[in-house]
């Protein structure tokens, strides 16, 4: 399909009339510290139609291929329980861990994942935990201490954290954050991943009496996370950062864990869409399977060295050199999107 031209605007990149697609949130106030004007971006953004849906990387009811030897699209482990209506990663019980992972590596350079999920339980305020992690990583089905999966991972993680372990935090929970790792970083639960967070936002997704959704888009180094939690049929900007480099050939997955506190952590669907994006000849000649997960910030805030003590390899733009992560938090914004994907 021929690519269409899109122009990203500051704030929300609203969907052009007559053209299907998710609205693309542009850089927020914090992002302006280090993002250069992007200009025109050629893309044919998915509206959720089946022509863009990659079924081999999607988890859709009635969950055909889950745990099946005849069609092994998804594998699960731990406390994960499969039902006709949802995949429960953990029940509302203490000390449970579960995960589900796509069996096939993804070789798309540009993609968008829509996740229909539900976190619910009997625990009152701050008496529930711990949350869900969404993954795009090199390794799969490796249990560990980070929301039921391994630490020091290679790839991308989006954490939907419901419990504040750090009593001094100014964050309001539940809280969504993003982390990119080349294996050198460890997720610090005692600080709720503060030292390795790229960006994050508060998101009230627990115990809602309606459907809750999250969308993750990765295209040409730009990572965007959006939520639909208010039952208003519109996406709200949560995270929008550039300079992110992820290889192809990694696996999508989801995991969850409970400790002394617990919740039901359910995945209803995970739908992956291919984004039709034009790349330069130089980009097309790169072996994307050999790229190291990395982040390149165009401008760093003052005092960065004091904030972060953990190194992460970054690119500038294709050369690797040592640098640091830094945290930023963006205020949410919302925009109607009548062309939202069919679920």
Main beta-sheet strand count, sense and barrel state: 8 strands, antiparallel
Q: N-to-C SSE series?
A: EEEEEEEEEEEEEEEEEEEEHEHEEE
Q: Which strand order do you get reading across the main beta sheet?
A: 6-7-19-9-14-15-16-24
Unreliable spans are 1-46, 299-343
Query: What is the SS-derived class?
Result: mainly beta
SS field, number of helical segments = 2
Number of DSSP strand runs:
24
Oligomer state of the chains in this structure: single chain
What gross morphology would you assign? globular
Bin the helical content.
Answer: under 10%
Give the averaged pLDDT, no decimals. 77
Q: What is the fold-level CATH name, i.e. the topology of the domain at 56-292?
A: Jelly Rolls
Distance between the termini: 22 Å
Radius of gyration: 19 Å
Strand content: 35-45%
* CATH class bucket of the domain at 56-292: Mainly Beta
The CATH architecture of the domain at 56-292 comes to Sandwich
GO cellular component, one term: endoplasmic reticulum-Golgi intermediate compartment
Subcellular location: Golgi apparatus membrane
Protein name: Lectin, mannose binding 2
InterPro entries: ConA-like_dom_sf, Intracellular_Lectin-GPT, Lectin_leg, VIP36_lectin
Written description of the protein model:
The protein has 343 residues and is an all-beta fold. The protein has a domain at 56-292: Jelly Rolls, CATH 2.60.120.200. Helices cover 2% and strands 37% of the residues. It has helices at 281-284, 304-307, and strands at residues 5-7, 12-13, 24-25, 40-44, 74-78, 81-82, 87-90, 97-102, 111-120, 131-137, 154-161, 175-182, 199-202, 212-219, 222-228, 234-241, 244-245, 251-257, 264-274, 276-277, 294-295, 311-315, 320-324, 334-336. Strands 6-7-19-9-14-15-16-24 form an eight-stranded antiparallel beta sheet, with no helix packed on it. A hairpin with a 4-residue loop joins strand 6 and strand 7 (87-90). The protein is globular and about 55 Å long. The protein starts with a strand and ends in a 7-residue tail after the last strand. Mean pLDDT is 77; it is low at 1-46 and 299-343. Residues 51-275 form the L-type lectin-like domain.
